[in-house]
Design a protein that fits this description.
Elements lengths: L1 H28 L8 H6 L26 E5 L4 E4 L8 E5 L10 E9 L5 E6 L8 E5 L7 E3 L1 E6 L4 E6 L2 E7 L1 E3 L8 E9 L11 E7 L11 E5 L9 E4 L3 E2 L2 H10 L5 E4 L1
Parallel strand pairs: 8-17, 11-15, 14-16
Antiparallel strand pairs: 1-4, 1-7, 2-3, 4-5, 5-6, 8-9, 9-10, 12-13, 12-17, 13-14
Amino acid sequence: MTASRTRRRAIAAAVVAAAVAALGAASVASPPPAAPPPSARAAAPALPPPVEPAFTPGAARRLGSTRNLSHWAPIRRVTTARSGPRPGAPAVKALGLRTPEGTQNAVAVLARVHDDRGRIWVRVALPMLPNGSTGWVRRRALGGYQTVHTRLDVDLGRLRATLFRDGRPILRADVAVGMPGWETPRGRFYVRNRLTRYRSPAYGPVAFGTSARSPFATDWPAGGFIGIHGTDQPELVPGRVSHGCIRMRNRDIRALARRMPVGTPVRIR
């Protein structure tokens, strides 16, 4: 009984071994699958054509001159301008969000630096006496930089204003300026706001507020800021008849309003 069972097991093992050997020989002897004929390859679907680009950059060009560009920024956080670009520098002027006329406060941007902790400080022109004052504020207190291509030149001797764009004159107009004892201040300033709600015979249809202040009108409302505005008395232009403001004929102030944006530098000489 035992010998018979042993023989059956030996026969079964031999059969399995023979089957495995036969399969191995068949796999070695079988050739690899043949490549499809050329006709079958040609029938395969082709790739789609390349997509036409939506934008093709042109050739590189050198940037133009920035000589006639100026920058300004609105005040976004109440802040203090300081004498140097560091928190401990002496305070020069507090800057609020609104002007005395209720418009968005703004400053001319002159330069910027990083302090030893990597914080950005911006040097700005300040609307205060003495005229020409500057100070440093943190970049985070300002809104986005704005760029203007214009500048206004006011010649007190010739009683003439000239607006330039990209360095070229685009508007000339006669002006009336401060009378003796109320002289219009000289210096470099900027247009702080544009006002239409002051329309009246004295101010005409539109007015611009500047950063210039009269040293003779410090007790006036808002501190005696110098404006550029129209008048319903065109016969007074040109002349020296105002308390420091710059007057134009109404047709000229309207033309100026169409061409001169907030932030425009103003030189009074």
